[in-house]
Amino acid sequence: MLPSDESTAPSAPTVPPAQPASLEEIYRSPLEVAAKAELARAGTKGQVPASFGYKLSIGHQEIDRIVDEVESIYSSLLLTGTEWIGVGQIGNMLVQLNDWYEDYDEFEDACGGSFEEFLGTLPQSEIRRNEQDKPELKVLLPDPDAPPTLMTLRVEQSTDLWRVLFKSGAAAVRIPHLEFEIGADSKRRIDTVYNHINNAIWNLSSHMRGAQAEAGAEFTAEHIAILDTVEKLEALLDVNEPFIIVVDDPTGASRFKPDDGIEVDESDPTSIDQ
Q1: Pairing of strands 243-249, 149-155
Q2: Across residues 138-165, what is the average pLDDT?
Q3: Region annotation Disordered: residue ranges (predicted)?
Q4: Same domain, 185 and 255
Q5: Which residue range forms the structural domain that includes residue 182?
Q6: How many helices and strands in the chain, by DSSP H and E?
Q7: How far is residue 84 from each of residues 77, 92, 116, 143, 167, measured CA to CA in Å?
Q8: Using the 8-state DSSP alphabet, how is residue 5 labeled?
Q9: Residues 189 and 252 occupy one common structural domain
């Protein structure tokens, strides 16, 4: 059984080449550079990836704390009985209640654009315009009564990799034809499909480095299996042929955005082996 993704990647890795020539090359793989590289590649094909994909230059810890604060503020304001709350109101409260940013402009710089655009890319949020043409936010909070779900995405082109996946801490992400799994680790993760895979590549490479340090220069069967998996995962990012990604979430909280073409099964969320 190939190792699953368990470790945590840093917020600024480097991009691995398509066919690494050495372990040192495998270990270079920042998500930010990967996103920029994919943007450049997509640009040559006349394709434009989703904004969140290439604006995701801040660390995942910062994204998590922004999202956590947004949900906390929204939940507090929701007690007033208002389901749709002004985006500007939430943004100003976030800046005023924390000392993370000097002002609203710096906050939006961290978001990679306007706060409205940032919120609009998150799978658990909805944006609408009110009668004054001002943006309002509705957060889709976790439903404790939601049924388990099994979501299947068929990746057919590079733009599919720029869908944003909200992976709950209870969810596992599987790539059936590789028998590979990004396991549940109790941590929520919001990222593009591209970066979910690229993060797994980094984690496997990190595991490989630790395992080789213990075993010395000699390659073991485990090392060879990990290298093979890394190469196959890297190949997926080129989308030379379609492949399937399955998100198995017993809490039903995970979401894709956009979600067109996603098959959702709420009846019997078990693993898919073909």
Answers
A1: antiparallel
A2: 92
A3: 1-21
A4: yes
A5: 23-30+144-265
A6: 9, 11
A7: 10, 16, 14, 18, 24
A8: B
A9: yes
243 part of a folded domain: yes
Length reported for the chain: 274
Q: What is the CATH number of the domain that holds 240?
A: 2.60.120.1040
Q: d(Cα 101, Cα 99) in Å, to the nearest integer?
A: 6
104, 212: one domain: no
Greater confidence, 202 or 153? Answer: 153
pTM: 0.72
| Geometric angle at alpha carbon 269, from 52 and 67, rounded to 5° | 30
For 96-130, the DSSP string reads: HH-SS-SSHHHHHHHHTS-HHHHHHHSTTEEEEE-
Q: Which residue from 142, 137, 138, 198 is spatially nearest to 166, judged by alpha carbons?
A: 142
Angle at 184 between CA 181 and CA 185, to 5 degrees: 125
Q: pLDDT by residue (tens digit) across 91-148?
A: 999 999 888 899 999 998 888 788 998 898 889 999 999 999 999 999 998 888 899 9
C-alpha–C-alpha distance, residues 21 and 113, integer Å: 37
pLDDT in tens, 173-226: 999 999 999 999 888 888 889 989 999 999 888 877 766 666 666 667 777 888
Tokens matching residue 238: 């080129």
Tokens 């890297």 locate to 234
| Domain assignment of residue 254, yes or no | yes
* 39-79 pLDDT tens trace: 454 443 434 344 455 455 445 677 778 888 999 999 999 99
Give me the residue label for tokens 């050495």: 22
pLDDT reported for residue 34: 42
Rounded to whole angstroms, the Cα distance separating 233 from 197 reads 7
Rounded distance between C-alpha atoms, residue 218 and residue 223, angstroms: 9
